[in-house]
Amino acid sequence: MAALTLAVERLAAATVLSCHGALVAASALQLETALSQALLRPELRIVVDLAAVAAIDCTGVMMLRVTAGIAAEQGGSLVLAAPNAQVVHTLREGGTLTTIPTYRTVAAALDGDANALITEPDAVPTPNVWPMNRADRRSA
Predict the structure, then answer these.
(1) Is the four-CA dihedral 50, 53, 55, 59 of positive or negative sign?
(2) Rounded alpha-carbon distances, angstroms, from residue 22 to 6, 59, 70, 127
(3) What is the value of pTM for the model shown?
(4) pLDDT (tens digit, 9 = 90+) per residue, 14-64?
(5) Do the beta carbons of residue 61 and residue 91 sit within 8 Å?
(6) Residue 83: phi, psi to the nearest 5?
(7) N or C, which terminus of the chain has less Cβ within 10 Å?
(8) Alpha helix locations (H) across 23-98?
(9) What are the φ/ψ torsions at residue 73 (nearest 5 degrees)?
């Protein structure tokens, strides 16, 4: 099982779920349990602190997206905070940065500071190593 530890801090305005380790398929049950419990709170604002998350896969991303949808249906919200560059890349590839507000810090997420939203493209673009169209290939 992938190592994942979770800490929950219940504030007046939000529940902060701090994750440490990997949000991957092997840790999905732990994450699902913590998110389900957060959805039961009367104040349905959830901030997922990703500062100590080393990796996230499509299972982790999907779980966050589903929970965000459930929270929205119940009149609440789920936002993400403080992901590292690798996690931001995975969130972007999965289309999550356009569906779940993602902030640079937990404080900004708690405040809803729009200036601290992560929206810019990856700093290093992925190169096109091999053209898909045969006509685009150069002869050596």
Answers:
(1) negative
(2) 11, 11, 23, 27
(3) 0.83
(4) 999 999 999 999 998 898 999 999 999 887 899 999 999 999 999 999 999
(5) yes
(6) -75, 150
(7) C
(8) 28-39, 58-73, 85-93
(9) -60, -30
